[in-house]
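Hello Y.,

Per our agreement to keep a running log of every chain we model this quarter, I'm adding this entry. I've kept the format consistent with earlier entries: sequence first, then predicted structure.
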Amino acid sequence: MKNIFQLLVVALINLSITTIHSQTDNGWTIMYYAAGSNSSKIDLLKDIKQMIKGKQSKGYEIITLIDRIEGYSNDSKTLSENFTDTKLFKIDDNSYQELSGREILPEFQKETSYEANMGDADLLKRFIKYCKTYYPAKHYMLIIRSHGDGWSMCQDNEAGKEDFLYSTELSDVLSADESVDILGLDVCSMAGLENFYEWRPNETSFSVDYILASAPISEALDYKSIFTRLQTNGKTSKQKNYFEEGKEKNLDPFSMTPDQFSKLLIEEIYDSQRWSSFGLFDNSKITNVKLKIDELARLLSEEQNSDIYAVIEQASGYYNEKKIEKEKQEIIFPYIDAYDFAEQISNHQELNEKTRTKAKEVCETIDQLVVYSYFGGKGPLPKKDNFEEGKNGVYLIAPQGNKVYTPSGDNFWEYAKAWYSPYDRKDNQAHGFYDWCSDGLDTKNGKMDNFYEYLDFLFTK
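Predicted structure for the entry above:
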């Protein structure tokens, strides 16, 4: 009897320790990289205000590195002052505190001023390292908040030169140690296969398991609604779940998985900006997508060029600015819906049966990549009547390269190659080095090895 009593006491002690442990070890650290050295600054303080109101539960931390610039916003209340430099904060329930960057971010000290270059990938790398070191958790989410154009983000004009975070630069500078479970791209036009492939799951460089991104323009996420749903009380939201049956569910941040959290995020994105187009993507599928598209490229090289010109021209595009004439938009944003492109090829009766069959395989892999997607169809977006949710919503870089831009005499492909390339493009104020372009490429074998090489073949005379 005594032994049984002793065993019960030990079991209760262990249960108590486990309970305390589970209540103090955070499930998530959310890193909010807010690059406001541009007109996006007007919205960043609104985001922070929503976060402060929305965070009501333990189980996760919100850490932000926020940069501001003169003009656009004079908010001196949300973070106590109208600062125009860069600061580090921790967001809590109806409160916040400025942080010291310690030895990882030594330039950031309380009560001192420092103007950071948010377009510097090394700064992002050290910010992630800081968060993982001092706010460790089971899972990590990185939110990049600023402007984006498909190949660059986080424009910064204050550090003595104009700089950007290039999508390919992240994979070059960040390491596997900075990898995250979820990447939330709260910027425009970044939902591209080429970007996702840069951040594919791997063991040697920066990688991401789930991505939330928009192919066309978008607006700020509703952070108050998102964080309000992170609760330990197990209650169910009153909002109807658009993507699945039943009501939206709150999640316990101590135990929610990346799959669950990413689905909550797309639910709230849909609820707050139905006019736009957004998607949730399972990035573990991106390598297979590239494999199938490269296989399709080899078959397309045997088809009539005119047939493929027509498919690219007819495929649904994702433009950005409503005040720019169509020709310039087609040059600046050479993005076509990847699923729509492959589906048109699969249905093109003039093409070889092998080509059409391979295009169907491409559609199947894209369908696996896209967990959820939707298209609002309002605002400065291309009209698309046949958008299939869960299939469309991610683009492929494929310019109408045979077209010539009248003022310069150059074709559209030459404009795209200034930044979309397997080679160094720093001389063009870009980065280049797209893995999507270089992986599988062999310029000496006289064959079409990947989709980039096929486009160069298609549009170079």
